[in-house]
Structures are given as structure tokens and as C-alpha cells.
């Protein structure tokens, strides 16, 4: 694969959610990512039926290893000996018990960057507790402030904890560690925790709260559906139009294109009038279809856009031209991002089946046919 990380070798222990997302980001950028799959099971979404459609696994080669067998563990160690980055998403202490913790692997390869992805972090009273995205963003703060007025907190899928606050944070940490290693020649261990990442993503909202610009009550603020000019509205055909006309000049165009410029409307900044203003906007937008409204706003200097579902993204002209969404082999998925003017990444390695490249990778490690046969016989690999 081409890309800015071409020539970087990454070893990733298979897992769920944030760590695979990090591996996908690195693979998208051209890194050679070797996925250490479990030999005894395919794991979630890794069946033969789902393998090629599992976007989080794209760009990898897969080697299926039995991490409970000492010779399987040694295979992983040998992989890490020649790697730049090692990724794991176990609870704290599990990698050490398996014999592939940072002390072991970095002791053999001092230049290795060892990335650890957990929910609660490697330290702290909750470090050993189980959890999922919803728990991490709940404790970190953002979940309390996501939702409409008078309704319970609304889970924003698992985008904030698992992916933005988890996998993306770890990928950023790895990029930083690679840059530092270019100066020092030394690797280091990265403790990426979703609870930390979710808090980090909340920085601007927390700042607004401290300065008095953000209210703790859900659905009463500028960006949380409280403002009528920053919300989604249903159209006549049951679809949705997003409106984000915050600035006065964009708001003026919005009101004009909605046909309300000559109406006696509450002032934009009068929060007491927001419910009435929202009612007026909703009533007007409900009179036309989404496509009709897009035609009305074509070329307008205001902030509106259609709400696209996954079934629609490939048909959107802007997304199609940029390759924001693509469908190699018929599987809808986001294209690599961000863009680079010299080292453009290319998706040329589809998601692998479990253990699809076992023999190939073992051969690269120096195992001959007899050695590979032995590892299979003792069930150290599959």
C-alpha cells in the first residue's frame, strides 16, 4: 500500500472496536499491518460470510496464532522483533500474563512502540473493570450533555468513546511516538484510554460551561438541539434536513430561503423565543420534500445539508467526487482520510479471513516448510 506510513510494520493483536479502528487507520496510511488472530475462533464479524465486509479489518494480513501455546507466543514475539509498532486491547495485565507485554517485547526490541488500548486505562481504581463505550463517555462527562430537552442522555452510537476517544487517540499517540523515535531512536509505551479520550473530546464544551456559555441541562444550548437554527427538521417525504445557520449572515439567508423574512419572528438570540421559532421552522420545512429544499438552498450562503443514511451516501455527488464513501467489491465503507498531495493511500488489501496469510507470514519470519508444519501439528498456529 502507498501512503505516508509506507515501510512501517505494525503487529496488531485482534480485538474489538477501538484497537481495530486504530489498526485500520494505520493500514489506510500505508503501514504493513499484521493481524494476530486467535487460532481457536474467528471472533465477532470474522466469519467467512462477513470477513470481506468487515471494514475495520481492511489493509491487513492475518496470521492465526494460539496464544496459549508457548510456540505460538514465540511466533508473536518474533513478529514484534521486526516491528515498529505493537497494538493490543487487553485489560491491564493480560498481555503480560500471555508473555507479550511491553517489558518482554520492548526488552527484545527497544525501538518498539507499544500501543495499549483500554477503556479505563492501565492505572486507577477502575482499571480492571469491564465496560463499553457508553460507560466510558458516561463517567468522562459528555454523555450527560447529549440529548434533547426533557429526555434521558442519548448514546451517540459508539463514536465518542470507542472510535474518536479510543482508536483515533491511540493512532495519534502512535504518530507522535514515531515522530519522537526519529529523534531518539527509542520506542515507548502508550497508555490510551477511552475515558481519557472522551474527556479530551469534551474540551471545548467544558470550556464553554466554565465560561457560562453552556448550560448543564440537555437540549437547551446552541449545539445540542436547543437552538432552532442548529437542529434537524423533517421534510414532507419523511426525510431530514440539517440546519446549522449560527452566524447572523447565514441565519438571514436561512430565514429568507424559508420564506419567513417578512414574518414577525422572535429574535435569533432571544432564547425565550427559541421554541416558537423552532415550531415555525418545522412547519415550513414540512411543506416540501428534501430534494425540493435542496433546490431552494442551492448556491445559498447558509449552512444546510441533507441527512444521509448509509444507503444514500454513495449517490451524493460531493461524497462521490471526493471518495468520502466508496464501495470496493460492493462493500460500502469510508475512504481513507485525510488526503495527502504526495503520499496518497490506496486500498489494495481487502479485509482478510482469519489466518489467511499464516504460511506467508511464517515464511517471512524464516520458518521453512518443516517448521510451519510443526507449528500446525502442535496447534501453535492455524
Description:
This protein has 14 helices and 11 strands. It has 382 residues and is of the alpha/beta class. The protein folds into 2 domains: 9-201 and 326-377, Rossmann fold; 230-322, 2-Layer Sandwich (formyl-coa transferase, domain 3). It is elongated.
The CATH homology group name of the largest domain: Crotonobetainyl-coa:carnitine coa-transferase, domain 1
Tell how many strands the DSSP assignment holds: 11
CATH topology annotation of the largest domain: Rossmann fold
CATH architecture of the largest domain: 3-Layer(aba) Sandwich
Strand order of the largest sheet: 3-2-1-4-5-6
Structural class, from secondary structure content? alpha/beta
Percentage of residues in strands? 5-15%
Largest sheet: 6 strands, parallel
Task: Return the CATH class of the largest domain.
Answer: Alpha Beta
> From the alpha-carbon coordinates, what is the Rg to the nearest angstrom?
25 Å
Oligomer designation: single chain
Order of helices and strands: EHEEHEHHEHHEHHEEHHHEHEEHH
Domain module tally: 2
Note the gap between the termini. 26 Å
- Average predicted confidence as pLDDT: 95
